[in-house]
Design goal:
By secondary structure, the protein is of the alpha/beta class. It is 27% helix and 16% strand. The protein contains 16 helices and 21 strands. It has helices spanning 30-35, 37-43, 78-90, 109-116, 176-192, 202-205, 221-233, 250-254, 270-282, 286-294, 321-331, 348-351, 356-368, 431-435, 441-453, 457-460, and strands spanning 11-14, 47-50, 94-99, 128-129, 150-153, 158-161, 196-199, 238-241, 266-268, 303-307, 314-315, 338-339, 343-344, 372-376, 462-465, 474-481, 484-491, 497-499, 512-516, 529-531, 536-543. The protein has an eight-stranded parallel β-barrel with strand order 1-2-3-7-8-9-10-14, surrounded by five helices. Strand 5 and strand 6 (158-161) form a beta hairpin. The radius of gyration is 23 Å and the shape is globular. The two termini are 20 Å apart. Bound molecules: alpha-D-glucopyranose (GLC) and calcium ion (CA). Residues 60, 63, 100, 164, 200-201, 242, 311-312 line the site of alpha-D-glucopyranose.
């Protein structure tokens, strides 16, 4: 894997502080993560995305940094971090980190200086208004937890802008000094050896906010600048952006109209996420097919990152009210499982009622759709959520490693309780229990990921739905690339199905099943392909298309 490695990767995301504690203080750390790299190697992932690692008061789980040039001392030292990069590289694992520069923590020295005096050199690093802005109550990201986007600061004697919580003042990207500083931050981490960044809140970084003007102009050129900057420092470094915007606006994040991808390499496919969840809820693939057909065309080199769960709520805001209701009814029936009127704060296992075959189906589908799959820690063993935790913390509980105290995460009182007792407790669900069991979900993920890595056309080829009459609930898609062609059948419904894909047979060469939910009759002439309820089949049509 060399060129465009990100198109052939499986990304695993985790928060260092909830993964593995090494020194008995109840907080996960770099040394703990290092000790688990062999586990991740066996799982087969080859890129780690770490949630924010910087010093932080921790009011938004690290998405509020007080120093972009350091690591949170609770996680270890910069030395430990460098060690992690080295150990990961030894195992062929690249590390990307969260870059949260839309805002700082209000305890960041820049903001502290800015509020102390109008003459502070950092005053203009943030976004101010002397008078109460007319759009003060517009554009909140966390309804229910956030009352406004402009807050009056008594010491500063002015209003400051914050797209997110009031303790996260937005940096002023109209200020060239801020832009230069952000470049320095990127360069610093690249110099240490990170392979790229998951860029937080990109649409808000490039909007040039002015008080009272809710539709701010967008500066896409800054993304081009950042891309150039990192690419000169490290040729294979990547930007993976969070930009949950309307579909027609997505291409601009990748690059200039008509050109190649000269901005962000990879964007999370939030649309697909919502559609996938809807399709699962309705046991009908239509929403996914529809999105695959209407996805805007990406410039060459642009790539999607697919996901079923990330660290936030499942955001259903791009579904219609009716679609959202269907998802809520199936997967978030209790008010307490929902968040911000638009999302679900649960993990996939419990959402799917702990139904193993349905869980496999869901992940098989995500991992075979175009793009680079992102997997959230704990999903590979089917962890659950803890609804007694506030908001999004429900799905941020410590990793469940073993039967030992606190699930083997830590000997001490953990920073957040490990899920214990009952169906989802660590006594039932943990890595040790699944490691040696060939029938476990973990073993399934290992096989699935290994098979995927033998099928690079999924990540670097084209993806198309097979447009033919199909039994209800069934989705058939194919991936074609220089290395060959793969065909995928997924049955989102519970009824066994027989699929006739005879028309495809002539274009195959030694076709065979490479992965499936059960043993099926060989593919034969493709006219009688069996598919169980919640079943899936990965069929190699041919190797090499030359
Ligand atoms: C992004 C993150 C989220 C965080 C927010 C503010 O949306 O995914 O976790 O709270 O940005 O930084
Ligand atoms: Ca620790």
């Amino acid at each position: 894997m060399g060129e465009r490695w990100y198109t052939e990767s499986v990304i695993y995301c985790l928060d260092v502080e909830t993964f593995q504690d090494s020194n008995g203080d109840g907080i996960g750390d770099f040394q703990g993560l290092i000790s688990r790299l062999d586990y991740l190697t066996r799982l087969g992932i080859n890129c780690l995305w770490l949630h924010p690692i910087h010093p932080t008061p921790g009011r938004d789980d690290g998405y509020d940094a007080t120093d972009f040039y350091n690591v949170d001392p609770r996680l270890g030292t910069l030395g430990d971090f460098a060690e992690l990069l080295h150990e990961a590289a030894n195992r062929g694992i690249k590390v990307i980190i969260d870059l949260v520069v839309n805002h700082t923590s209000d305890e960041h020295p820049w903001f502290q200086s800015a509020v102390a005096s109008k003459d502070s050199p950092y005053r203009d690093w943030f976004v101010w208004a002397d008078k109460e802005p007319a759009d003060r109550f517009q554009g909140m990201v966390f309804p229910g937890e956030q009352a406004e986007t402009w807050t009056y600061h008594r010491r500063a004697r002015a209003w400051y802008y914050h797209r997110f919580y009031d303790f996260q003042p937005d940096l002023n990207f109209a200020n060239p000094l801020v832009r230069a500083e952000i470049k320095k931050i990127l360069a610093f981490w690249i110099q240490l050896g990170v392979a790229g960044f998951r860029m937080d809140a990109v649409p808000f970084i490039i909007e040039l906010t002015e008080p009272g003007r809710s539709e701010a102009p967008m500066d896409f050129d800054y993304l081009t600048e950042l891309r150039q900057h990192i690419q000169w420092r490290r040729g294979d470094a990547v930007l993976l952006a969070e930009a949950n915007v309307e579909p027609e606006k997505l291409p601009e994040y990748f690059g200039d109209a008509g050109g190649s991808a000269n901005r962000i390499h990879m964007l999370f496919d939030f649309m697909l996420n919502g559609r996938l969840v809807l399709a699962l809820a309705r046991q009908n693939p239509e929403p996914v097919i529809d999105w695959l057909k209407t996805t805007p065309k990406l410039p060459p080199g642009g790539q999607w990152a697919t996901f079923l769960r990330n660290h936030d709520e499942i955001d259903l805001s791009r579904l219609t009210a009716e679609q959202r209701e269907d998802v809520f009814e199936q997967f978030g029936p209790d008010e307490d499982m929902r968040l911000y009127d638009r999302g679900i704060r649960r993990r996939l296992g419990p959402m799917l009622g702990g139904d193993r075959s349905r869980l496999e189906l869901a992940y098989s589908l995500q991992f075979t759709l175009r793009g680079t799959p992102v997997l959230r820690y704990g999903e590979e063993i089917g962890m659950g959520e803890d609804l007694t935790q506030a908001g999004r913390y429900a799905i941020r509980t410590p990793m469940q490693w073993s039967y030992a105290t606190n699930g083997g995460f830590s000997d001490a009182e953990p920073i957040r309780p490990v899920i214990s007792k009952g169906e989802w407790g660590f006594e039932q669900i943990n890595v040790t229990a699944q490691r040696h069991d060939p029938a476990s979900l973990l073993a399934w993920f290992e096989r699935m990921i290994r098979t995927l890595r033998e099928s690079p056309e999924v990540g670097n080829g084209t993806c198309a739905c097979v447009d033919q009459p199909l039994p209800p609930g069934v989705l058939v898609h194919r991936a074609d690339g220089p290395t060959g062609s793969m065909l995928f059948l997924h049955n989102l419904g519970t009824q066994d199905a027989t699929v006739d894909l005879g028309a495809l047979a002539k274009d195959t060469h030694l076709p065979n099943d490479v992965f499936a939910d059960q043993e099926y009759e060989p593919v034969g002439d493709f006219t009688q392909l069996q598919l169980g309820g919640y079943g899936y089949r990965w069929i190699r049509l041919r190797r090499s298309n030359s």
